[in-house]
Design a protein that fits this description.
The protein has seven helices and twelve strands. The protein is α+β, with helices and mostly antiparallel strands. A five-stranded antiparallel β-sheet has the order 1-8-9-6-7, with helices on one face. A five-stranded mixed β-sheet has the order 2-10-5-4-3. A two-stranded antiparallel sheet has the order 11-12. A hairpin with a 5-residue loop joins strand 6 and strand 7. Helix 1 packs parallel to helix 7. The longest helix has 20 residues. Bound molecules: zinc ion. Zinc ion binds next to loops.
């Protein structure tokens, strides 16, 4: 599943590719992928021009001007493939089918532009969606996400309050709760907790003030660094230009089980926590 840095990478590339383009047509082949309904998505989007592509948490937010927007969530297996008129492809999200012909049986929403380029939303498991939204609906969708590590609302005070409100929750699961803090997924939760020297299995309520401060500081730093590297290619992710995300060599614990801790020389362990593979150093994370 793409995380915030990966979604930000797709968003940046979509801004370069589709901003200013006019939507000629929208085709939908799976009712579930198009919301609120295929008809609304098609009728409301046709003829509109892309003003900007933004992001809130892991949701992609396409501004069509006026009271019109398209929201996209890739969820587990969603993928966006932009095909220029020349046939050159750029893709982001789930890597399966990148090299295949388009459209394919997973191309559930197809947005074509008047210049001959096309944006395909492919999704194997159909958990993802492409949604038409008015400005109000868009605002409501954005509000479902908690504070963003890059927002001005992301303050030590607010961060501390989030932790204090769920003292019994395991700290890693709390970090991954999108309604509390937006955009931290499995990879960056593990990396942030390693950086702050906190065991992922700790109860949030057991964190000392110094640890809360440290965690608060490392989260945006790690996400920013990952964005600068184009994200991580682990899980189901490839960068939207087809290359693998450049963050992989910089990961300290994620995907390194059995390897040596770069900080203390201990051995990185992997356990399951809330159904997710969780990586940590038992020696220097407390
Ligand atoms: Zn260590």
């Amino acid at each position: 599943m793409p995380e915030l840095p990966e979604v930000q990478t797709i968003v940046s590339e979509l801004n370069r590719k589709i901003k200013g383009k006019k939507i000629k047509d929208v085709k939908v082949d799976a009712t579930r992928s198009a919301q609120p309904s295929p008809k609304v998505l098609i009728d409301k989007s046709k003829g509109k021009t892309i003003k900007a592509v933004k992001r809130r948490g892991k949701m992609i937010d396409i501004d069509l001007g006026g009271d019109h927007n398209i929201l996209i969530h890739l969820k587990m297996t969603g993928q966006l493939v932009y095909v220029a008129k020349s046939g050159k492809k750029i893709s982001g999200g789930h890597p399966i089918g990148v090299v295949g012909a388009l459209p394919n049986k997973f191309s559930h929403v197809i947005i074509s532009f008047t210049d001959g380029s096309v944006l395909y939303f492919n999704d194997i498991r159909k958990f993802g969606w492409v949604k038409y939204a008015s400005n109000l609906e868009r605002e409501l969708a954005r509000q479902k996400f908690g504070v963003e590590p890059f927002d001005k609302e992301y303050t030590l005070e607010n961060f501390r309050a989030i932790i204090k409100r769920s003292p019994k929750k395991k700290i890693k699961q709390l970090l991954m709760d999108q309604q509390k803090i937006a955009g931290i997924g499995n990879i960056y939760a593990d990396e942030s907790l390693f950086a702050a020297k906190i065991l992922p299995t700790r109860r949030a309520g057991s964190l000392k003030e110094k640890e809360i401060k440290e965690l608060f500081t490392v989260i945006p730093r790690i996400l920013k660094f990952a964005i600068s590297k184009g994200g991580t290619s682990a899980d189901n992710y490839v960068r939207s230009n087809g290359t693998k995300g450049g963050m992989m060599p910089y990961l300290k614990v994620y995907g390194r089980e059995g390897e040596k801790c770069r900080r203390c020389g201990g051995t990185i362990k992997k356990v399951r926590l809330g159904g997710r593979g969780t990586h940590y150093c038992p020696k220097c994370q407390k």
